[in-house]
Amino acid sequence: MKRFAALIAREFRLFFSNNVAVLILFGAPLAYGLFFGFVYYKGVATDLPVAVVDMNSTTTSRMLIDAIDDNQHVAVQRVVPDISMLAHEMLSGEIVAVVSIPERFEQDVLMQRSPALILDVSATNIVNANFAIKGIRTSLETINAGMQIEGLRKQGVPAELASQQFQAFSIQTMNRFNPSLNYLIFLYPGLLATILQQVMLLGLALSFSKEYEEDTFRELTRQTRSPLLILLVKSLPYLFMGWMIWMFCLHVMLYGFGVPMAGSWSVLYGISALFILAVTALGILVSAVIPNQLKATEVLMVIATPAFIISGFTWPLSQMPDWVGWAASVIPLTHFLEALRNIMLAGAGWEHILPEARVLFILTVIPVAAAWIVVRLKVKQALNSESDSN
């Protein structure tokens, strides 16, 4: 028993002598727990952008618009006379829902014809869709109840009976792009992209740091002194492997589980290439800067682990604290998932995903430029070290 206790005590001493292990076991749960708590702190989505197509332009229609805008879950961003004016915003994800008020709405209400309001909801993001539906329907149903009771009371019908009579208007909800609110269609592509980023960053963490630790970088500089060529040699294998993995995910995994593709394959391939380039650039930069494999892996895992949570894919980025949004904006996955969802579910084209494409391009160019500077300095150090040894 004493030997067993001594062995247990020895194991504890070994563990607490390893600062990295202590930090991971005790620090990571605390840090990530606080971080994710801040991400979901609001608990409900508020001020989601919606639009109204007002073909009636009357006092009644303006009352409906004001009621919708007063709801905490939504905010009316645009009021237009024709729904075709909102096609771009719906496909690009700028507008979550559109309420259409028909041309003869006020007249039909007064004539007790129970006209229909059309609620078009973009279901590319199920969380946004559910909160938008809840907010808009609550506002409209409250107005509806008030209008029908008031109208019947003017006819001499008691209030308790009026509430059981006809509706002043009806509300027809249409879920666009994911009519059945299928969670597999919504979530699965994003999870596969997250896995791709994570495994690529894990592999890229070793690209330069392994050379530094094993002192083989000087051997590389004997074969070429060009920082650009070194970056290409270090990057191309990961670019190729990342592309092949993603093609397998798109054409085997997604197809096998019946996930539909509404958009253009060429657009999806283009934005996927930008994403893989941006991930590779980030991984190469971290590996070039940090000379230790373990530390490089830790840094990239700190980036990769919360990436899906803070990407805005499952919980709106607009509902997170500003500093979380800033952190998410430098991770390639954030911008790729927004474009991926809109292409696959809504059929978005290049004109709808240009903002995401631009950011992914920037997230490629800046790390590559920084990595070029770092590698150039490392090459000079290696050459100076070799000349000194000679």
TrEMBL record:
Residues 149-378 form the ABC transmembrane type-2 domain. It comes from the Bacteria. The keyword Transport applies. It is a multi-pass membrane protein. Keywords: Cell membrane, Membrane, Transmembrane, Transmembrane helix, Transport. The chain crosses the membrane at residues 20-41, 183-208, 228-255, 267-290, 299-317, 357-375. The keyword Cell membrane applies. InterPro entries: ABC-2_transporter_component, ABC2_TM, ABC2_TM_bact-type. One of its GO terms (cellular component) is plasma membrane. Gene3D superfamilies: abc type-2 transporter like domain. It is found in: Cell membrane. GO terms for molecular function: ABC-type transporter activity. Belongs to the ABC-2 integral membrane protein family. PANTHER family: ABC TRANSPORTER PERMEASE (PTHR30294:SF46), MEMBRANE COMPONENT OF ABC TRANSPORTER YHHJ-RELATED (PTHR30294). This is ABC-2 type transport system permease protein. It comes from Cyclonatronum proteinivorum.
